[in-house]
Design a protein that fits this description.
The chain is an alpha/beta fold. The termini are close together. This is HAD family hydrolase. InterPro entries: HAD-like_sf (IPR036412), HAD-SF_hydro_IA (IPR006439), HAD_sf (IPR023214), S-2-haloacid_dehalogenase (IPR051540). Keywords: Hydrolase.
């Protein structure tokens, strides 16, 4: 029996690129006022170079977008000439500004309706994300019961450990859970390799290029309830 449905967040329930673009602009506006040396030396385009440098220095943080972002800010502020104590203070404040702005998402059409319908149907709902969107700050806490992120678990999808953390929390078997997401490797194959059912959100109708097929594919979020119903019926038929 299907008892729980988990969702990826970025590019599954909303488009992430415009969110991060706007959050980066908010960050740079704040840096202009509060860290002018940084703003004088770097542009938005330099964030990619700083990210490469930060990851080269600390490859162990690659699973965490939060740790990467903080490392980028510290590196940039240091290169801009700020002393160590000020780097720590400014980087913490700047990250908080970015993180708040990063929660300003615009949901895809039918996203909230699908969540509401699945909640009403009696499923436990949760999020499993590699990003640092927060279900409370994005307005999802009335729909989703829990969240697991790469930042907190210490690994990112498709690592089975993040799915196992969810299973331990819900006390469910893998076959009782459907995971829904847009990324073929991180979401669908990651979920299926952990024993879950995997639904591919393919809003842009891209070809499937992996050897293992998803259990269902939706090209619009108003198809989610039907996809879950089919998998639930399939599961019952196997019993």
């Amino acid at each position: 029996m299907i008892k729980c449905i988990t969702f990826d967040l970025d590019d599954t329930l909303w488009a992430v690129d415009p969110v991060v673009k706007a959050a980066n602009q908010t960050l740079f506006d704040w840096l202009y006022e509060n860290a002018p040396l940084f703003h004088q030396q770097f542009t938005l385009r330099d964030l990619g170079t700083l990210r490469q440098q930060a990851l080269a220095a600390e490859p162990e943080i690659s699973y965490s977008v939060t740790r990467i972002r903080k490392a980028v800010l510290k590196l940039g502020l240091t290169q801009a000439g700020y002393p160590e104590q000020q780097v720590a203070e400014l980087s913490d404040a700047a990250f908080d500004v970015f993180l708040r702005a990063r929660q300003n998402v615009v949901f895809f059409e039918h996203a909230l309706k699908a969540l509401a319908d699945l909640k009403t149907a009696g499923y436990q709902l949760g999020a499993i994300t590699n990003g640092n969107a927060d279900i409370h700050s994005t307005g999802l806490s009335s729909y989703l019961d829990f969240q697991f992120s790469a930042d907190h678990v210490g690994v990112e999808k498709p690592d089975a450990k993040i799915f196992t953390a969810m299973l331990n929390h819900t006390k469910l078997k893998p076959e009782n859970v459907i995971h829904i997401g847009d990324n073929p490797q991180h979401d669908v194959l990651g979920a299926k390799s952990a024993g879950l059912w995997g639904v591919w959100v393919n809003l842009y109708q891209q070809p499937w290029r992996e050897n293992v097929a998803p259990d269902a594919t939706v090209t619009s979020l108003d198809q989610l309830v039907g996809a879950v119903d089919k998998i639930a019926a399939c599961k019952r038929a196997r019993l």
